[in-house]
Amino acid sequence: MTTITQSIEIQVDNRHVLDERLNEAEQGLQQLAMITGTHGILLTRHRPGHYTAALSDQVPFGMTQELVH
Predict the structure, then answer these.
(1) Distance CA 49, CA 13 (A)
(2) Which residues of 3-31 are buried (b: 16+ CB within 10 A; e: fewer)?
């Protein structure tokens, strides 16, 4: 089971804004991940324009993985 310690919801209608929000979320989560050194970042696409960026113990530290539902 995946343990999520921090999560950011992203909902947008514009691809340019999506890229900016995903980058901002990833950078913020990278800073949090540095505190523990045990979690990577999981980006999940739930549907077009709706994403979750989260720290996950199922992703190796220093890595970012994408998951499409």
Answers:
(1) 6
(2) eeeeebebebeeeeebeebbeebeeebee
Give the span between the Cα atoms of 63 and 57, in whole angstroms. Answer: 11
CA angle 23-9-7, nearest 5°? Answer: 85
**Using CA atoms in the order 43, 46, 47, 50, what is the torsion angle rounded to 10 degrees?**
-60
Task: Give the pLDDT confidence of 15-64 residue by residue, as tens digits.
Answer: 889 999 999 999 999 999 998 899 999 999 999 999 999 999 999 999 99
| Entry pTM | 0.85
